[in-house]
Structure formats: C-alpha cells, structure tokens
Design a protein that fits this description.
With 241 residues, the chain is of the alpha/beta class. 17% of the residues lie in helices and 23% in strands.
Amino acid sequence: MPAAEESPESAEPQPGLRVAYVAGVTPGKWIRRWEERMPEYPLHAFMSDDAAQLSVLRDGSADLSFVRLPVDREGLNVIPLYEEQPVVVAPKGHEISVFEEVALDDLAEENFLDIEEMGGPDMALQVVASGAGLAILPMSVARHLNVKDTVMRRLTGAPGTQIGLAWLVGTDNPVIEEFIGIVRGRTAQSSRQPSAQQEKPKKAPKPDRRGGGPKKPAVAQRYAPNPDKGRGKGSRKKGKR
C-alpha cells in the first residue's frame, strides 16, 4: 500500500480525498491512477472494520468507502463493483485439505462459526485454528489474515459476497466523481470525467480565406509599366522628335 495510508482515529483532518476500505479490498491500483491524474489533490486511504464500514462515512472520517455488501443503503449512494469468491477455512490437517474445492452440501455435518458472534474474521480464524469449528469467508479476507494452523479451500454452493463503493447522498462533487470514474475504469480522456471537462484555452481563429480577411500589401513593381503592352502593332502615334 502507498505510504499515505493511516488510521483515521490518530490522524488530524487533512485536505484531499479520504477513502476507507474493508479487509480484502486492495485499492492500490486506483490510488496509483489517482496520483497520476490528480497529483495536486492528495488521497488518504485507510482500512476500516466491517462493522465501521458505514460509520466512517456518517462521522465524516471518509468521503468514500469500499464496503462489503449488503449494507443499509438509507442515505447512501452505492455502486456494486465485483463479487468475491467464498472459501471454507478449517484447522490444519482437516480432510478438506486433500481437495482443491469443496461443496457446501458435503460439509453439512460440520460446525460452522458465526463470524459476527466471534467478534470478526480475525478472532473467528483463531478459533478455527484451535479446532472448534469451520468458517466461511471471502477468499480475499482469508488470504489477508493468513492465520497460522489453518487451511482454506474454494467453496461451491455458498452465496458469495460483493464489494461496492459507497458515499453519502448530497456529497457529490467533481472530486468524488473523478475517483468514481477511475474505479469504473474510465480513461483520463473520457468525456464523463470531470478533469476532462475542464475548459481548454481557445485557439486563435484562423484567417478567413474567402476574401474577408486582411489583404496582403501591394508589392512594388520592379520595372515601369510598358505603355505599349496590350496595343496592336502600329498603334503608337508617331510624333516629331
């Protein structure tokens, strides 16, 4: 992660865009694109617990938050982004370790832990490591925590989870729209990006070549005009010398 990451509790309010994200989300690619396009506008990113993924918006700690759906959408704008692969986590040595993936129906006799009752995924995996039960988590979260003495396998037949981007209704502004566009994959030249809609300096109008423009100055003739030019032979009057 970039060095800009910091905890909202210990940090003083700073100018710029503040983005929170739950465990398992890796916002590094979006942050790099932001720094390339908006170097004059710093972005401060920090991780939040699943339980605080919305409160960081409501208490003003973050302008946007990558959340794990579903969430209460009251007063929020939410854009679903992508689905997460579920896995089952068991103590090391469990029989699931001999398979590449496991079906949920094949684990009907197992004891599954309630992640929320356990106080979150970190504590739940500590309990799994002790042999007290199994846990179902998004693969990204299990890999992020990487608790010793556990093994995880892809799980089929289980509902997946989804990551979305949320912000408060009424806080829309060009800076937030710029970040949303980056997350959605819009290029810097996209007409929907606020940074691409900024007024560009107007070029000087081209001269009108149809006769309305300024005329070129007359060029002096090098020789006097021939008075006989255009007259027929013998047209010059003879006079006395």
